[in-house]
Amino acid sequence: MPEGFTLTPKRKNKLVLVFILLVLFILQTLHPQLFERVFSFVFEKTNTYDFCYPKKLVTVTDGDTIKFLANTAKKKYLKVRLIGIDAPEMRQTPFGIQSKDFLEGLINDSLEDKVCCKRGKEPKDKYGRTLADCWVGKTFLNASLIENGQAVSYFIGNKNNKYKNLFFKLEEQAEIMKVGFHNPDNLLTELPYEWRKRERSQFN
């Protein structure tokens, strides 16, 4: 230790914080799936969700959108678009149906009875849908769809980029492992946003 250097409690706390951040960076780089599970666990213990609903009040619209029955008396729904992902459209057969079924399975097959979400820094998209990261238990729905080749990473703007690096790494690994629509025998040849752009151009 350099002469005159005193390891005060404040300096000690800073060194511990730097060490933890370094470990997390290495973990995210080398083992993104494990990082996601650790982060989700810490998130659940240290943060509160913005809203939670029983699974029986949840409807999956497609692979990246879910609805919560927010008011049962008035049949009022809260429509949520999962942040940072883009799943095939329902008319992109069979991929849209497969992605929707996968998301339904993540929710319905879980032993947990609630779906919980955290709103993004940018709370709504241009269609008025709530933008959120969602979990069922410790399963991070957004990340699981990418990890299993049922959605691609998709970020617009600079506000809702919290899991951008993680999603990019999960997508890269899904491509390497050829899971979901990355499988050559079931290959998605047109990305969802490309498909939407082509569909819109037909009406211009």
Structural account:
With 204 residues, the chain is α+β, with helices and mostly antiparallel strands. It has a single domain (34-183), classed as OB fold (Dihydrolipoamide Acetyltransferase, E2P), CATH 2.40.50. The protein contains six helices and nine strands. It has helices at residues 9-30, 32-46, 95-108, 141-147, 164-177, 192-201, and strands at 51-54, 58-62, 65-71, 76-82, 85-86, 114-124, 130-136, 139-140, 152-153. The strands form two sheets. Strands 1, 2, 3, 4, 6, 7 and 8 form a seven-stranded mixed beta sheet that branches. Strand 6 (114-124) and strand 7 (130-136) form a beta hairpin. Helix 1 (9-30) packs across helix 2 (32-46). It is globular and about 70 Å long. The N and C termini lie far apart (70 Å). The mean pLDDT is 87.
What secondary-structure arrangement, pairings included, does this model have?
Elements: H1 9-30, H2 32-46, E1 51-54, E2 58-62, E3 65-71, E4 76-82, E5 85-86, H3 95-108, E6 114-124, E7 130-136, E8 139-140, H4 141-147, E9 152-153, H5 164-177, H6 192-201
